[in-house]
TrEMBL record:
Converts heme B (protoheme IX) to heme O by substitution of the vinyl group on carbon 2 of heme B porphyrin ring with a hydroxyethyl farnesyl side group. The chain crosses the membrane at residues 12-35, 56-76, 82-99, 111-129, 135-159, 206-227. Pathway: Porphyrin-containing compound metabolism; heme O biosynthesis; heme O from protoheme: step 1/1. The gene is ctaB. This is Protoheme IX farnesyltransferase. Its main location: membrane. It is an enzyme of class 2 (transferase). It is a multi-pass membrane protein. The lineage of its organism: Bacteria, Bacillati, Cyanobacteriota, Cyanophyceae, Oscillatoriophycideae.
């Protein structure tokens, strides 16, 4: 939203979009907990969730999820625009129908394709500001889409036995650790270059974001490479998983800071000063 508005996002629009997006994500997650209540009960990590623990009945949870979804769509349509509301709802549908129902229990590529659901929020944010979708939000979509496998497979390496126990075919369970970390490395090599497309050729982000993207990208590559050299090292998998969260947060922060008018003024002033200094250098 900050990029689309060139650093001058409307605060009320921002608040409504964040609230609507949160409600949509919550609706999808509640539905997921209903659908996966059988395996959630079997896994120690998820057994304490409200439905498998018996604190909430599935029917009550479904009513709650529908209310959340209706509230989300209503907020978008009334206060923002129809496109952003439809995109938010498409995230719920894709997450539940494609990822949770069709992919999660049937293929080790579940998180790759299913990652599209988690990549929709940038489309929602961009549409909320502009009312349409240009190339920039699709690049943001691609960044998160390609970031998701390294992020989630690092987690899957840590809890491989939990997934094996309930027959969820996550990559480490089916293909093993070595194959998984190779895939992590490949996807890392794919998504890091995508982060620079916002600078060139799209030109929607500038120098500040570019510097942040280079530093964070180098750190991510280093951690992914270390894990590739030691696929069985749980500490390295945990380190990559935790950093992947920090990485995306800082990368997005860089986008926001770079989009601010103050940042544009600072870079312009530095550029003018540099030009002046260069002009003072004698040519002979």
């Amino acid at each position: 939203m900050w990029i689309a508005s060139k650093g001058e996002v409307d605060s009320f629009q921002l608040l409504i979009t964040l609230l609507g997006g949160t409600l949509a994500a919550a609706s999808a997650q509640v539905m997921n907990c209903i659908y996966d209540r059988d395996i959630d009960y079997e896994m120690l990590r998820t057994r304490a969730r409200p439905i498998p623990a018996g604190r909430v009945q599935p029917l009550h949870a479904l009513i709650f999820a529908v209310i959340l979804g209706v509230l989300s769509f209503s907020l978008f349509v009334v206060f923002v625009n129809l496109l952003s509301g439809l995109l938010a709802m498409s995230g719920i549908v894709f997450y539940m129908l494609v990822y949770t129902h069709l992919l999660k229990r049937n293929t080790p590529q579940n998180i790759v394709i299913g990652g599209a659901a988690g990549s929709i929020p940038p489309l929602v944010g961009w549409a909320a500001v502009t009312g349409d979708l240009s190339w920039a939000p699709w690049v943001l979509f691609a960044i998160i889409f390609l970031w998701t496998p390294p992020h989630f497979w690092a987690l899957a390496l840590m809890i491989k036995e939990d997934y094996a126990q309930v027959n969820v075919p996550m990559m480490p369970v089916i293909e093993g650790e070595e194959s998984t970390v190779k895939q992590i490395w490949v996807y890392t090599l794919l998504f890091i270059p995508c982060t620079f497309l916002l600078v060139y050729p799209l030109g929607v982000s500038g120098v500040i974001y570019g510097i942040i993207a280079v530093i964070l990208g180098a750190m991510f590559l280093q951690k992914a490479w270390q894990l590739k050299q030691a696929p069985l090292d749980q500490d390295l998998a945990r380190s990559l998983f935790k950093f992947s969260i920090l990485y995306l947060m800082l990368l997005c922060t860089g986008m926001v800071v770079d989009s601010l008018p103050m940042s544009h003024q600072l870079i312009a002033a530095l550029g003018d000063n540099l030009t002046t200094l260069v002009s003072l250098i004698p040519l002979s």
